[in-house]
Amino acid sequence: MYGDPHRIVRAESGAAGLDALRQMKLRGDLVAVIPADYRMPGMTCLVPTARPATVAATVAAPGSAATARPSRPDGMSCIDEGYRGGGVRRRCTVSRAGNNGEENGSSTGKAGGELSMTSSSARDLDYLGHLAAESARFAEVLAGAEPSAPVPTCPGWTADDLLWHLGEVQWFWGSVVAGGVTTTAEADGIRADRPSTRKGLAEFFATASRTLGEVLAAAPPDTAAWTWAQDQTVGFIRRRQAHEALIHRIDAELTAGSGTAMDPRLSADGADEALRIMYGGDLPAWGALTADGGQTLRMSAADTGYSWFVTLGRFSGTDPEDGRAYDQPGMQVAAADHGSPAAAEISASGADLDCWLWRRPVLGPVSRSGDPEVLAALDALIADGIS
C-alpha cells in the first residue's frame, strides 16, 4: 500500500525480503527495514515454525527520508510489539553486516520507554565458571566444523556466522563492563568489525571470550553496568552470558554432529530465566494482567527439584504514549511454587526443559498431563519461541 510520505513493501520470506531490498537498492531508493517476525526463514537463529512470517520495508517517497529505530552496538535493533507473558514486548534482533540477524534476547517493558524485566535470584551458581566452560566447548566444536557448515537451529547461518555472533556478543559485553558503560548513548558507540577469515574469527572469539571472563571476574555482581534490561548490573550480564554461551554451544554441537551433557542446575536456571525474564516480566503501569485462576500449570525440572507455578491470563491496557491498545494472552510466574494444585503439569529434565523453552531439540521426554486446554494455551503463548 502507499501513503504519504512512505510506501510499504511486504515479503513472505527472508529470501523474498532480501531480494526486494536488492531491487530497491538498485533503484537508489532509501529504505528502512522493519522485521515484523524474526522467525522468518533464513533470518533467525531459532528453530523454524510453520507460522507465516512477514517483513515490511518502508521505502521513502521522493523528497522524503525514511527513518527507523537505529541498530544498537550490541547488534540489537528493537521494535515494540504485542504483549506476551507479563508486559509489552519489545522485540530485539541482532543485525550484522554481511550476516543474517539473530535475536539476542528480548525483555518485557513499556512501549517507547526503557526496557524492563524481572530478575530472579541466582541459585548460587558459578556463572563465570559455566561461561568459561561453555565458551571453550563452543570454540572446540566449531574448530572442527567446516566454515560453511549450516547451523540447523539457525536457518541461513554457517558455522562461521555462529562463531562471529557469539564472539561479537561476548566482545560487546566485555567492552560494556571494562569501559564502565552505564548509558545507552555510551553503548551505542561500541562496535566491532567482522574478521574476513576463519583464523581471524577464531582469534577474535578467543580474545573476546577471555576478556569477558576477566572483566566480569574483576567486577562485583552489583556493579552498575548498562544492559537492555531493568537490571543494570554486572550480575545480570554474568547470568545472561552464561546462558548465551550454553545455548550456542548446543547450536555448535548440532552443527558438528556431536553432543555433550548440559549441567542440570545451570539448565534449570536457564529455564527459570526463560520463564521469568523472556516470557514473563514487569507490567507497565498502564496495563493489567487478568489472571485466569483456572489456567494454572506447574513446570518442573525433574532432576533438580526446581519447579515454577504459572498462571495464564490476559493482558490489557492502552499505552498513553502512542494510544496503542493491548488485549492478548499473558502469563504470571509465581515468586515461589508453594505446591498449590495446578490444572496441568509439564515435567522434564532441566536440560530438556531449557532446550524446549529455547526451541532447541530435546533428548528425553517432556511429560505433559492435565487440562488439555491449559496446555494448548501455553503452547500458543510460547509458540514463537524466545525472541
Structure characteristics:
3 domains; disordered N terminus; 9 helices; 387 residues; alpha+beta; Four Helix Bundle (Hemerythrin (Met), subunit A); Nonspecific Lipid-transfer Protein, Chain A
Task: Give a written overview of the molecule.
The structure is a single chain. Helix content is 34%, strand content 22%. It is of the alpha+beta class. The protein has 3 domains: 1-68, no CATH class; 127-260, Up-down Bundle (Four Helix Bundle (Hemerythrin (Met), subunit A)); 272-381, Nonspecific Lipid-transfer Protein, Chain A (2-Layer Sandwich), CATH 3.30.1050. A 5-stranded mixed β-sheet has the order 10-9-8-11-12. Strands 4, 5, 6 and 7 form a 4-stranded antiparallel β-sheet that branches. Strand 9 and strand 10 (325-333) form a beta hairpin. The protein starts with 5 loop residues before the first strand and ends in a 6-residue tail after the last helix.
Shape summary: globular
Quick one: biggest sheet?
5 strands, mixed
The H/E string reads: EHEEEEEEHHHHHHEEEEHEH
**By helix and strand content, what is the structural category?**
alpha+beta
How big is the Rg?
21 Å
Task: Provide the CATH top-level class of the largest domain.
Answer: Mainly Alpha
What's the helical proportion of residues?
25-40%
Q: How much of the polypeptide forms β-strand, as a percent range?
A: 15-25%
The CATH architecture name of the largest domain reads: Up-down Bundle
Query: What is the count of helical runs?
Result: 9
In the CATH hierarchy, the third-tier topology of the largest domain is known as Four Helix Bundle (Hemerythrin (Met), subunit A)
What's the rounded overall pLDDT mean?
77
Question: Any idea how many domains?
Answer: 3
Low-confidence stretches: 1-6, 22-28, 35-44, 47-121
Biggest sheet strand order reads 10-9-8-11-12
Please report the total strand number as a whole number: 12
- N-to-C CA distance: 28 Å
